[in-house]
Automatic annotation (TrEMBL):
Xref: InterPro entries: HAD-like_sf (IPR036412), HAD-SF_hydro_IA (IPR006439), HAD_sf (IPR023214), PGP-like_dom2 (IPR023198)
Protein name (database record): HAD family phosphatase
Native source organism of the sequence: Anaerolinea thermolimosa
Amino acid sequence: MIELFVFDLGNVILPFDHTQIAHKLFAHSSSAGGCSPREIFRYIFDLEEGFINPFEEGVFSSLEFYARIRDRYGLGLDFEAFREIWNNIFWENPEVNEVIVRLKEMDCPLFLLSNTNELHFSHVLERYPVIHLFDEWILSFEVGAKKPKRRIYEAIFEKTDVRADRILYIDDVESNVRAAEALGMKGMVFREAADLWSLMPEVHR
């Protein structure tokens, strides 16, 4: 029996494309040799060493993050123009929204657990109403830890008394799901919305 549903944000609720950022920043870059969309993407988004990692753990403010990227690549962008490029990478998944709305109608507790940053999350709060259906938001830049680090999952238990084995964690990244399972939660590697219905037999369309 599942008593609490915990959803990842990116590529579950909101698909996104980071490569758009790299290409658009390159178009505004005045840096000399070595700069390319591929290099910009690697510098910012590399899974292990990307500059986004400390940003998403709250080490840098949004303005500090922008300034570092601006100075490295000689960007001809003010902060507002940078924010526009940085944020316009998401789109909705209506079928997943339908599941979330149905769960909310059934009074199921809903948590959001996301590796994200201040810029992206403020944007999705304004743009996508589905985010406001969640009872709690657990955000890496506020917790100071990104998935699959143990600390961010422990934040779930600080906000609920539900037993771990009655919590379902849903994420598109397998290593993140396995980290949740290591703490006793049930896990689902998300591929498509139909998976959500099939694993929640108490939910009927």
